[in-house]
């Protein structure tokens, strides 16, 4: 059974939280990749930025649904959700647009577990972390390559 360490890209492209969103979008397009790990100055993983995070900027501003009960307005959407959506839509830096605390795997995680994570959660990119530091990244293409080798 193959492991994450055997199929991962071991020198992944990374971004910092301070990177401008336009630069990040250009990187994703130029490299033909779906997601990029975001690391702090010490090299610790702090998030992941995917194409879907950037596409969120094209959404309309979410208006929370309300209903009335006994002459009071009750929101059907939490204000936290609205705040998160507004932050992504208005993102200027990667820190504003990224998904913080992403799901990660360890180098010894089986390919079957990684594939299940990707399919069950619609992930396209999964960071591989060892001791809090990013050691690689696995994309859907990495898993597909195992089928043809």
Q: What's the CATH architecture name?
A: Roll
How are the strands of the largest sheet arranged?
Answer: 1-2-5
Radius of gyration: 18 Å
**What sort of overall outline do the alpha carbons produce when their principal axes are compared?**
globular
- The CATH topology turns out to be CBS-domain
Helical fraction equals 25-40%
Q: What kind of assembly state do the chains in view correspond to?
A: single chain
Q: Low-confidence stretches at least 5 residues in length (pLDDT < 50)?
A: none
SSE-based structural type: alpha+beta
Number of DSSP helical runs: 7
β-strand percent reads: 15-25%
Total beta strands: 7
Mean pLDDT: 83
Element-level helix/strand string: HHEEHEEHHEHEEH
When the domains are counted, the total is 1
Biggest pleated-sheet summary: 3 strands, antiparallel
- Compute the separation of the termini in Å: 14 Å
What is the C-level CATH assignment?
A: Alpha Beta
Q: Please, what is the CATH homologous superfamily? A: CBS-domain
How do the helices and strands line up, and which of them pair or pack?
Elements lengths: L3 H4 L13 H11 L3 E5 L5 E6 H5 L10 E4 L2 E4 L3 H11 L4 H4 L1 E2 L10 H11 L3 E6 L2 E7 H9 L1
Antiparallel strand pairs: 1-2, 2-5, 3-4, 6-7
């Amino acid at each position: 059974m193959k492991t994450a360490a055997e199929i991962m890209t071991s020198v992944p492209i990374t971004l910092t939280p301070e990177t401008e969103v336009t630069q990040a979008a250009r990187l994703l397009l130029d490299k033909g990749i779906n997601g990029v790990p975001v690391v702090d100055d010490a090299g610790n993983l702090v998030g992941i930025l995917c194409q879907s995070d950037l596409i969120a900027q094209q959404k309309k501003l979410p208006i929370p649904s309300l209903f009335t009960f006994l002459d009071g307005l009750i929101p059907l959407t939490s204000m936290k959700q609205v705040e998160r959506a507004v932050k992504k839509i208005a993102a200027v830096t990667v820190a504003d647009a990224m998904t913080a605390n992403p799901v990660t795997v360890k180098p010894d995680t089986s390919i079957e577990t990684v594939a299940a994570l990707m399919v069950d959660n619609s992930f396209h990119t999964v960071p591989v972390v060892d001791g809090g530091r990013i050691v690689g990244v696995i994309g859907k293409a990495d898993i597909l390559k195992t089928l043809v080798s």
